[in-house]
Amino acid sequence: DSGVTQTPKHLITATGQRVTLRCSPRSGDLSVYWYQQSLDQGLQFLIQYYNGEERAKGNILERFSAQQFPDLHSELNLSSLELGDSALYFCASSVVPGELFFGEGSRLTVL
Amino acid sequence: AQTVTQSQPEMSVQEAETVTLSCTYDTSESNYYLFWYKQPPSRQMILVIRQEAYKQQNATENRFSVNFQKAAKSFSLKISDSQLGDTAMYFCAFMKRGSNDYKLSFGAGTTVTVRA
Asked: Are B41 and B99 a contacting pair, CB within 8 Å?
């Protein structure tokens, strides 16, 4: 158990819909990262937050947004969903640079 | 931007044998970290080993060791005495050192199957 909790583990939705993925980092970790894993794109960095502030942005679509709350949990919002958004979305947290602790991921299926 | 290349999509190894996974990367940075992460069928990503580019000594973690060749921009992972539990997808990753963020760039992964 990495200590990073992600919910939901699975969700199925329709095109055009909006979903929210939630992540609770390890106790004490200030950094939260979101990654997308798909068969065609591999593991792609989406966004990083550090203590409530956006620290880095990767290949995140404008339809996607994220935030980190004062209690350090984070949410990734995906809107106007398309078939191509179907993927595994990972949250990770860290203290030591690069040593990420990943959650089990949220498997999103867009039909 | 950094690119990480893993040229072996799949590898198979007999239990107790040794397997080596290759990884090359492209960067203009001189200070960076390299990592190997493992993703077993349970799908949770787990850090296997870490190497700091300024260290010449290759990192070792139990049965896992790396061969880091900075000039060649190569970072291979050797799994010795393979066990069934090593069956997983292995990802090589790069991180620039000294940046304000700690984002990782991952390779495409190598699926390792350990045969009984």
From this structure: no
Nearest to B44 by CA among A10, A73, A2, A93: A2
Question: What secondary structure does DSSP assign to B35-63, as a single string?
Answer: EEEEE-TT---EEEEEEETT--SPPEETT
* Per-residue confidence band for A2, with pLDDT thresholds at 50, 70 and 90: confident
CA distance B42 to chain A (A): 8
Parallel, antiparallel, or unpaired: how do β-strands A53-57 and A5-7 relate?
Answer: unpaired
Strand order from edge to edge, sheet including A74-78: A5-7, A19-24, A74-78, A64-68
pLDDT for A101 equals 94
Per-position DSSP letters for A5-38, written without gaps between them = EEE-SEEEE-TT--EEEEEEPPTT--EEEEEEEE
Give residue-wise pLDDT tens across range A36-89: 999 888 899 999 999 999 999 998 999 999 999 999 999 999 999 999 999 999
Q: Say yes or no for a CB contact (<8 Å) between B44 and A48.
A: no
Q: Is the pLDDT of residue B17 over 70?
A: yes
Count interface pairs A-B at CB distance under 8 A.
57
